[in-house]
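Q: Convert this sequence to structure tokens.
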Amino acid sequence: MPARQHKVFISSVQKELAEERRAVKEFITRDPLLSRLISRVFLFEDIPAKDRLPDDIYLDEVGQCDIFLAILGNQYGWKNSDGKSPTEMEFDHATQTNRERLVFVKGDDDKTREPEMAKLISRAGRQVTRRRFIDTPGLIREVYAGLVESMEQRGKIRATPFDDSLCDGATLKDIDNQEIKTFVETAESVGRLTLKGSRSPVNTVAHRNYRSNGFVQVFVFADRVEVWNPGELPSGLTPEMLREPHGPIPRNPLIAEPLFRVKYVEKAGTGTTDMISDCRQAGLPEPDFEQRGPHFVVTLWRDWLTDSVMDELGLSDPERKLVSLLKVRGSIGNKEYQEAFGVSKPTASRHLDALAGRGILTKVGTTGRGTYYRISRKGLIKGSKGS
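A:
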């Protein structure tokens, strides 16, 4: 069932604030988010002149709206026989019918306002929070903030993690007693379920974006396995930072917590560094972490530099030793190569660049201390038997 849409009533002195009234309506109806949540924005001037009825009819519109949006300026407006303007009557009716009221006040100098309007603004301020603005763009910003906050409070916009959000309309009837019984019996009989294999597929359960319609996908190639997970890294975290120790930032904390308790995932933010360590211990290249559009992708590379491939490539003993060293360490720089093999800097550069030229190593960087080498992710040499 589609979510119920809401109605907004815009109230102000029409002649004084005609530009602001129209701008607010156009913004709400064109905004991708608000237009999905708000089905109608009422403006008096949109009603054909022949259909304009007495004031009490338009007060009915106030009583039917979900959000009463008042824009107050300097002028009080036309008064009826009781000395009240339509704007004040609408505000009073919104109060009496318990409508949600959002009040926006133009300008900071209250001395320039007509006395009746100054009193109305003061009275409104004692009942609701007033937001001030100077120009139309400022009003739009304040209206957007106010409406988004309103929709969050109504549960129409989730401001909490997906797994910590309320499920509208859910009841106890939605819980399957047999499924719960089976789960409890299985948990008690087994003690603790064990998942074997890579950490990456398990991490997709804890970190995926459950609001996305995308699927978790695992692609198996001859030289690698790719795990595609809908979602993005938390703000401030980059793929390269995943290779260093970092704090835990779970997207879905209520899902991550039980996975941590049964030791399927790490809570200290060491999941990716542990993956790197696991690959090194297995003699595999380090995994790749990257954002591809709406998916975060982890690539696990196979060991294509097998003994038979190195035989075919005719690698020397020092070159084989370097390959074994890189499978454990992940990368090596020129100075580290000099120390490991007892050669000069020019010789180290010549050896490393030669292996990079053959596609066995990949050079990262150009010159300087930040330059290092690692095993190429896949066999680039013609005739390789790495598949």
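The chain has 14 helices and eleven strands.
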